[in-house]
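Subject: two folds for Thursday's group meeting

Dear M.,

Sorry for the delay on this. The cluster queue was jammed most of the week, so I only got both jobs back this morning. I'm pasting them in the order they finished. Each block is the input sequence followed by the predicted structure tokens. Could you check whether the formatting survives your parser before we put anything on slides? The first protein is the one we discussed after the seminar.
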Amino acid sequence: MSDTAANDQIEKPMLATLLHQGVYRIVMQRPERMNALSTEMMTALSAELQKAADDPAVRVVLLGAEGKVFCAGHDLKELTAARGEADGGKATYERIMRQCSDLMQQVVRLPKPVIAVVTGVATAAGCQLVASCDLAIATDTATFCTPGVNIGLFCSTPMVALSRNVARKQAMEMLLTGESIDASTAKEFGLINRIVPGDYLEQVVQKYAEVIASKSSKTLKIGKEAFYRQLEMPLSEAYDFAAATMVENMMARDAEEGISAFLQKRKPDWTDS
């Protein structure tokens, strides 16, 4: 590749976005950097997620990537460069880890469903990003890994998202061995929802997202928030919270409309209120 071509590739937008029929697609396009979660990439992702949260036309978010690597996790070159700072990089590392943690929580707290579309390798914080999304669809060639232990840096922050999606022993297996798992194993572990042949990925993902986008956004917002909040509660407290949430949901106009439409055997007319 010529220097001009290489520069053109680097200078294109870090993210590509497209809104179609309520589905907002965000695609990381730094394949030459393995779509690493550099400070710049995390800032760009956070900004697009906020746009999605604020735009009433957005009902579902798809998060994908160009290239053979969905996301390689933190930018190790960026982390290594900070070693030369007066404090050995500590302040920079604190800032980067906080920014990454904030990004993952932003995904979870987004009032709209976020679906990871994984077409390659998702490793370290890239695997964490997949685990943080509400749903995940992967090609049959996708792989997943938390390999920090192999370079003397345990995947402690990826562990938070991983351990909330995968059974304890499976999570520890990934964290302690640092070995990759294939898409079939990831589905068995509970890390992803579906496996799709690459040739059919776009068709399946779009249809999958449009089904969710057809629901009341008010209902989806209430449900997503309640799901994550009750996970952290004791059983009795979770039921009290869920019951109160059901009452709140029943008072919404869309619940009244949805129940009426079901009883009258017609399609509901959502107002998202």
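Second protein, same layout:
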Amino acid sequence: MSRPSTVDYTLYLVTDRSLSRGRSTLEVVRSAVSGGVTCVQLREKEASTRTFIEEARAIKVLLDDKGIPLIINDRVDVALAVGAAGVHLGQSDMHIRDARRLLPPEALIGISAESLEDALAAERGGADYIGVSPVFATPTKTDTALPLGLDGVRKIRSAVGIPVVGIGGIGLANAAEVMMAGADGIAVVSAIVAADDPQKAAKALKKKIG
């Protein structure tokens, strides 16, 4: 089976239980998806492996019913355990060649690119999409490189042929600008996860980016 070429990255949710204001990740995802989220990345930095897998399975059932892909952050083992659509890997995570060797051929692999060089290397390595990170300064991750800005998005978009998703400091005020700079989608964390109403937040973002 070949990897899917029609994944909709337009509104890409990245979860973060520390920002969910006491709501479960499943609850936030359900609400966000009902508001128009098109792709979900489950990110769990503190949970045990068993908890991560249990949560991923529950979320996958919800997403499968709606035809939305579940991407697992960092953890190839968790993606394999639950049959997720794929993984998203940072520059210090497992190398894409090793992940590709372990995952089934149809699995998606996204790579975070902190520079044009990262993006070009990811495409050469067989990445399915690139997360341009960070576009703007963001409080949700403290280990990121300096913001690439809209110019960075434009440069990467013009240099690679695979989908490009902007992440980092993106919200209602600047989402449209990121898309106009050439991104195929925006990835958001706090703009949805920490919102009073994740469904309304997702709807507003979806409307903003058309």
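Two things I noticed about the second structure. The mean pLDDT is 95. The chain has nine helices and eight strands.

Cheers,
T.
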